[in-house]
Amino acid sequence: MTAQTDTSRDDLIARNLAAVETHFHNETPETIDQAIAVYTDDIVWEVPARGLVLRSIEDVKQEYLKIFGSMNIHKIVNLHRFATEEWVFDDSIFEWTITGDGFRNCPYPPGTTVSVRLLHAFQCRDGKICREHGYEIWRDINDHARVQDDIPATATVEVFG
After folding, report:
1. What order do you get walking across the sheet with 87-98 strand by strand?
2. Rounded to whole angstroms, how far apart are CA atoms 5 and 8?
């Protein structure tokens, strides 16, 4: 393998990681347009645990806005993130209280505080996200038998007030 091929591979991975970072950083009602700007026009957004498959940027935007309006986030623990030339994987734990009905096919009612282990698999093309798969493991925060996670020393934790 030549140095140029290595650089090209590194550049592809860096572009993919940057697209995912831009997406995550802007997952708020105020900056949602920037989050979805890193999608390709043929985005496929899938959440298998809740039976959701969306195929348009506008549908994904509306789904996010419903979700944002139905959660009070307490903490995010970023466990692992890595990438290849085509995929970015992010493994995190999100803790929030469900405040509304914006999570379609949610396994818990509003008022429940949950710990959701969430693995994102992002397929990227030309520095943009063409597929976003969110694999969710929903757990009631008080279910100490199920809320068992191996948190690496390198994890980053963001606590919200």
Report:
1. 52-54, 39-47, 128-140, 113-125, 87-98, 71-83, 156-159
2. 5
Which residues on neighbouring strands pair with residue 6, listed in sequence order? none
Looking only at the bridges linking them, the beta strands covering 39-47 and 128-140 are: parallel
For the segment 129-149, the average pLDDT, to the nearest whole number, is 98
Q: Is the pTM of this model over 0.85?
A: yes
Please state, in angstroms and rounded to a whole number, the distance separating the CA atoms of residues 112 and 135.
20
Closest CA to 158 of 91, 85, 78, 79: 78
Question: In which band, very low, low, confident or very high, does the pLDDT at 2 lie, cut at 50, 70 and 90?
Answer: very low
How far is Cα 18 from Cα 12, in angstroms, rounded to an integer? 10
Strand partners, 76: 94, 158
